[in-house]
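Action item from last week, closing it out:
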Amino acid sequence: MKPQKKNKNQDNLKTKDLSKNTQSPDKEFLTTNQGVRINDNNNSLKSGERGPSLLEDFILREKITHFDHERIPERIVHARGSAAHGIFQLYESQEQFTKAGIFTDTSRTTPVFVRFSTVAGSRGSTDLARDVRGFAVKFYTDEGVFDLVGNNIPVFSIQDAMKFPDFIHAVKPEQDHEMPQAASAHDTFWDFVSLVPETMHMVSWVMSDRGIPKSYRMMEGFGIHTFRLINQKGDSHFVKFHWKPVLGVHAVAWDEAQKISGKDPDFHRRDLWENIDQGNFPEWELGLQIVPEADEFKFDFDLLDPTKIIPEELVPVRIIGKMTLNRNPDNFFAETEQVAFHPGHIVPGIDFSNDPLLQGRLFSYTDTQLSRLGSPNFHEIPINRSVAPVHNNQRDAHMRMTINKGKTNYHPNSLGGGCPYQAMIKDGGFSSFPERVDAEKIRGRSKSFSDHFSQPRLFMNSLSKHEKRHMVDAYAFELSKVNHDHIKERVCYNLSMIDKDVAKQVADKLGITIPKKVELPLNQNIGADEDPVRNEPKDANHVTESSKVLSMEAHNKGDIKTRVVGMICSNGVREDSLMAYKNTLESQGATVKIIAPKGGKIKTDQGTALKVDENFLTVTSVIFEAMVACDGLDKEVLEHQVAKHLLQETYKHCKAIAILGNGVELLNNTQIPTNKKDPALLVNDEAKAFVKAIAAGRNWQRELEPVVPA
């Protein structure tokens, strides 16, 4: 099965605009909301030039009233987001598993709207917080709207929806002083985590480099929960959904993330917008992990547990199609802010499992849309509107937009000819999977949910050396912000249940000792018969196998497409050398930006004028993937503190550097060591070698050397 090739014609990839008004008058006069043309939009109606404003000024009253009510409540979680339109195309029919047309009809091009987000911060927070990223996809299918509401991490923090408010309350800014913003490095979060060990799997992912992705375009997406696929025969298969980015999976360094947050908190938003605007359309392939109904209890973990993954070595991911984002929103508020996702928006051929967290989300998402958008009619907002016809007897309510005709708004009826009719299953009517349920009503959890440490151990064992080192540093950084030692000790105790060496490294950095036993508060019930914090599990020393795909290293595609490379230049720069590098980099899909002391243009040694993209007043190395010091630099640049800082910071963040000609003088003016073999520091090498160095990824070995100041 071969993936379809990307269509290079941008116009052919344009999706149907679901929100635009098709009317386009030749002249657009300024009007009130009632269509009355306005001839003065600068002055309110007054009694004389210096007199009081008049209450009768209906134009002023309408304008101010609308402004006063423009904001709507932000999302409680996932408030900070960015989005784009696109399409989904299926490679191969999956009719043996599902009757959903989106997964069976290869002739379809299905419009989608995708919103990426951070979880903990407010709308005004930074894109580069260490956090989970939301990855929500709205499919506008011919059978109705299907929302795949997921994250860039494949597991949730808690197992039961009853604990979700507690988890979010704990990670949000502390309620007495509303600090810190968009950060989990504080007492209440780690207090909760230390008392609820089921959080340890997701927290370990967030403490890894997955918690600080390079861009939305370079992160995986996961549906997290186990769903069902239902075929035409009514047969059921369990399924987990995966999004695999075509560009691979990449992250930034933690120091880099902190600097980006200060220099460009819109970094991810800007990256997504600009790449789509330039025609670098982000792409993800959709994969399914499918488990037959008969294999539900085959594994040593529970398929219904949202804190667990299905290792791909046990159930391979079937790649079935590709999603391409090819159009930016026209209006952030109307589309990105008002879009309403819901895991309960499914179509025939897809159904739910008994995952207790999923079951709670099925209620929560409708409830929160009522609060945010103010009406059960949120489905009529253009960005949320189904492309499939909508016919039912729901009427009225706040901000109803559909004008329903006729007498009947009930079913059954004869006055309306019986319309709208119920759909038979053969006509595409939705029918829930007839799962047999025979049980007593209880409040509790299956014992199959009680292993909280094996899978985070699997994750840690799968990381490369530098990834594990970064995770240790992240745990230590976050816990250093915690003011209570007993919380730090509980977290390190839980870590010792996963990986004793990791726990010891974290404890050493914190200057604490891992306790042999942890006392919990009275009546502390964490939802398991055997408390894994009090009683060390029997397999605590067992080394679980690793999974190659859990390391980000396995997802490096080995190319430099859409990477941004900076070239430090000045007047008199050698044109032949510069252009050889620039042309080679751009031929491999990279974006090259000219950096110079001032804005405007520079002249090469051959008199050619080149536009300056970044100048020394505003430039920062963190927006670049690699850096080139060109040949022919003048004395000002060779001795300039900004030029030296660009190279040193690029080196500190382990990125590739190329030095050409007299750029060596600039290198020698820095504190970068040149007496060691460094595959990512190239001096007078060919451009092809530089491309290879960028594609190979960062030289994390530099982190083990004395720190270069930057």
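Closing note: The chain has four domains: 31-70, 81-199+214-384, 452-553, 558-704.
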